[in-house]
Amino acid sequence: MVSIANRVSAAATRLLMVRPTHFEVVKYSINPWMDPESKPVNRDRAMEQWNKLKDTIEEVGGEVHVMESDKATDWPDIVFASNAAVVRGKKAYLASFLHPERRGEREIYKTWFEDNGFETCGRTDIAFEGAGDGLWCGKDYSRLFAGVGPRTDPRALEDIAKQLDDGSGFKVVGCKLIDPRFYHIDVAFCPLSDELALWFPGAFDPVTQHNMRNEGVELVPVTHEDAGFFSCNALVVSKNVIMNHTTTRVAKTIEKLGYKPIYIDMSEFVKSGGSTKCCTLQI
Question: Is 67 helix (H, G, I), strand (E, B) or coil?
């Protein structure tokens, strides 16, 4: 019989990505990174970076499932697959986006999940932004670290625990985010394994910092500078950490922990407030 830990860790190599067919930053700004006037997206370069990310994942043993976005002309941020849902086994708790500029993504994702054998759930009246604000960690992946504040309503946490209940007794840990630049937990917290994670403590309030340190996870801090390079928005496949270009300081930290850093250019996606992790969802 396969354990919960094995099921979740195995899922880390099976990923959903959404092709950035209509990705752009020209119509709106919904986070501090987005500047439509001075930092528009070069769509050709974004597609090249996205393909490089996909190729890199597959080169290190990951399995990528691509959702096409040809019909998502009004939803340029749908490329950030991490926000689609939190997945546990074959059940997906769908996002309910805070900003109207992203709300249309939900139905597109819902269709994909159901067409691919997942059961979907999730309320539409309480803001929650998927794995952008919900990351599995803790012994045997028994903790869902859930960011609350900027994009996710804390009232969603109880419903997530109820709807995704699989009998394993996992715990949802609410984590209050206080820095507007780190508006999702996945730009400030990066599980490397079930008991080890990178994090930027300054993204969280003092009570949350205390609580996170007491959930059985070894937390390795990165600096404010490194967090600003999206060092915590990294994708882990086996012992490989795929991330946006950052400082040598982070590389040395990752190597000391027994992992291999792989840097790729994600500059076009950083313009919209995301990087490698934001562009993928563990399924």
Answer: strand
Phi, psi for 174 (deg, rounded to 5)? -75, 130
Q: What predicted TM-score, i.e. pTM, was given to this entire model?
A: 0.93
**What is the CA angle 264-267-47, rounded to 5?**
80
Q: What pLDDT score was predicted for residue 34? A: 83
Between CA 73 and CA 197 the distance in angstroms is 36
Give the Cα separation of 127 and 152 in Å (integer).
Answer: 5
Choice among 137, 175, 278, 279 that is catalytic: 278
What are the residue boundaries of the structural domains of the chain, listed by start? 4-282
Give me the pLDDT at residue 33, please: 85
Spatial distance between the Cα atoms of 151 and 241, rounded to a whole number of angstroms: 26
Among candidate residues 209, 204, 210, 202, the one with its CA nearest the CA of residue 226: 202
Q: Has 65 been annotated as catalytic?
A: no
The CATH architecture assigned to 4-282 reads 5-stranded Propeller (3.75)
CA distances in angstroms from 17 to 117, 191, 247, 279, listed in the order given? 17, 19, 26, 6
The string of DSSP codes covering 18-48 is: E--TT--SSS---STT--TTT----HHHHHH
Specify whether 22 is catalytic: no
Query: Stretch 1-24: mean pLDDT, rounded?
Result: 66
* Catalytic pick among 184, 190, 232, 279: 184
